[in-house]
């Protein structure tokens, strides 16, 4: 196992726990979409590691696509919704599964769902690796959920603080002194 990063307070979810959860989620999606060809929409950048692992745990033909939406800035609190990079495929009449790293306030996902519904998707399901229910302000229900976590700022496995730590193979709690200084 990799040595804990100096800015991390503790490991919240280990590499092994992540791998097992991804297998479970992949199996659930595989079972639910038999005979279909869903589009996995990865929300960059935070979901890139989760997406790469999850898509290989799904035993179906799938399309993949990517969106960049921003609702965060560089701090630790959610803000406004903006499309920075749009999809390259038409989702009209398609089954869409949104792949997110973390559901926090819910603003990003609730705005995104409205947009994809408006574009005529047949179905839209949400898959998030992490769920921080304490901070929810917009109502969003997950169809596939990895882990429920407490209200702490986490890094690793794609998740950043100020664009750092995305490459850590585990999910850790960031030391408070890093974002209060
Ligand atoms: P929401 O719109 O508040 O649900 O924010 C979702 C986005 O905020 C996620 O896709 C992450 O990019 C970011 N985010 C929320 N909580 C954390 C965290 O604890 N660590 C890193 N990024 C986070
Ligand atoms: Mg982020």
Short structural summary:
The chain has 181 residues and is α/β, with parallel strands linked by helices. 24% of the residues lie in helices and 29% in strands.
Strand content: 25-35%
Q: What best-fitting shape do the alpha-carbon axes yield?
A: globular
Radius of gyration based on Cα positions: 16 Å
Spatial arrangement of strands, main beta sheet = 4-3-2-5-6-7
**Count of alpha/pi helices:** 4
Order of helices and strands: EHEHEEEHEEEEH
- Helix proportion range: 10-25%
What structural class should be given to the helix and strand makeup?
alpha/beta
Distance between the termini: 29 Å
Overall pLDDT, averaged? Answer: 93
User: Ligands bound here?
Assistant: inosinic acid, magnesium ion
Number of strands: 9
Layout of strands and helices, then pairs:
Blueprint: E1 8-13, H1 15-32, E2 39-44, H2 48-55, E3 63-70, E4 82-85, E5 95-103, H3 107-118, E6 123-131, E7 144-148, E8 154-155, E9 171-174, H4 176-180
Parallel strand pairs: 2-3, 2-5, 5-6, 6-7
Antiparallel strand pairs: 1-9, 3-4, 8-9
Helix pairs in contact: 1-2
The chain binds inosinic acid and magnesium ion (MG).
Inosinic acid (IMP) is lined by residues 46, 71-72, 78, 100-108, 153-154, 159.
Describe the fold and architecture.
The protein is of the alpha/beta class. It has four helices and nine strands. The strands form two sheets. Strands 4-3-2-5-6-7 form a six-stranded mixed β-sheet. Helix 1 (15-32) packs across helix 2 (48-55). Residues 46, 71-72, 78, 100-108, 153-154, 159 line the site of inosinic acid.
């Amino acid at each position: 196992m990799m040595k804990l990063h100096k800015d991390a307070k503790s490991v919240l979810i280990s590499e092994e726990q992540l791998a097992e959860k991804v297998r479970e989620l992949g199996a659930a999606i595989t079972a639910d979409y038999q005979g279909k060809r869903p589009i996995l929409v990865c929300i960059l950048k935070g979901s890139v590691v989760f997406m790469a692992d999850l898509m290989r745990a799904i035993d179906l033909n799938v399309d993949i696509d990517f969106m960049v939406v921003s609702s965060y800035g560089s701090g630790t609190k959610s803000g406004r919704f903006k499309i920075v990079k749009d999809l390259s495929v038409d989702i009209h009449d398609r089954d869409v599964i949104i792949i997110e790293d973390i559901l926090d306030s819910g603003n990003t996902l609730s705005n995104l769902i409205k947009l994809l519904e408006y574009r005529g998707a047949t179905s839209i399901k949400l898959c998030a690796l992490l769920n921080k229910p304490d901070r929810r302000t917009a109502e969003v229900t997950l169809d596939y959920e990895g882990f429920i976590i407490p209200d702490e700022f986490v890094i690793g496995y794609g998740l950043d603080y100020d664009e750092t730590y995305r490459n850590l193979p585990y999910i850790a709690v960031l030391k408070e002194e890093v974002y209060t200084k």
